[in-house]
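Exam revision sheet. Question 4 asks you to relate a sequence to its structure. Input first:
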Amino acid sequence: MKDHLVAALVYDGLYTFEFGCVTEVFGLHRPEVPAPWYDFAVCAVDSGPLRAAGGVRIEASHGLETLARAGTILLPGWPRDREPPETLLETLRHAHGRGARIASICSGVFLLAATGLLDGRRAACHWMHAESLKARFPAVQVEPDVLYIDEGSFITSAGSAAGLDMMLHLVRRDHGARICNMVARRLVLPPHREGGQAQFVRRPVPVRGATRFAAALDGLRAEVTQPLTVEAMAARAAMSPRTFHRRFREAMGMTPQEWVIRERVEVAKDLLEEVALPIAVVAERAGFGAPETLRLHFKRITGQTPAAYRRLFGGHEGTGDASA
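Answer key, structure tokens:
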């Protein structure tokens, strides 16, 4: 990853928060990370000092020629009422053709869709813009109720903050779980959220119970590898099982049982990436018990078997179990 160049596109009318998130993840020096970090460049599509939200002006030191040779291109939003310059669209198409991955945050998906590269592919979008994206680019398979979607060469995220989840996902792809978690801790972010999680709370948890619910969730996450019933989870939150189940679905977009399974899959990912353990031991330590149960849920949630995941992300020699 030493020579991996990450380029962030900037433009007149730049969305400051999205750009700041990109810079925070990829552009800062990280002495705490025991691995070479990314090279980072800010590339302008427009000439001169650029206006950014909040009255800020930005002057970039690179242009589209640098964007064209980047290994990862970040699109931190794009004005939806602006037609992209053809030179920019051609640059993105060329970059994709030589193997670059392109990631968009929030309205940046409109720019990526304008290249035609998303035709026939799934794409995440902020729920407020989903219908507009569908109408303008009917060939794109818009999924408005997820945080981000990884299609390999194209990674699209929903609202601005979901871009942080997406970028941590990219760090995890590149460097593994341990370094990803180090970056998340420095950002003071919660544990990694899977891209398929719901974008928003349909009905907010009442303020009176929000702190208690959040504290209960933190405690449950620490015990997720232990046997957990809905009744036990509800008792920790001082709620009836029925109320807890309803509040949980409203807050997390899934049932408590599904949340426990997904958290255990995350534990299994860490073990597969960092430790050469037999799959039976991974299943036991992650709280699944039987290896068959681990394989079933791991494949359903990640689209890969534990063995395939280990081959891609494992930072150790050997698997300890050829039947993974």
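Marking note for examiners. The first helix runs from residue 16 to 27.
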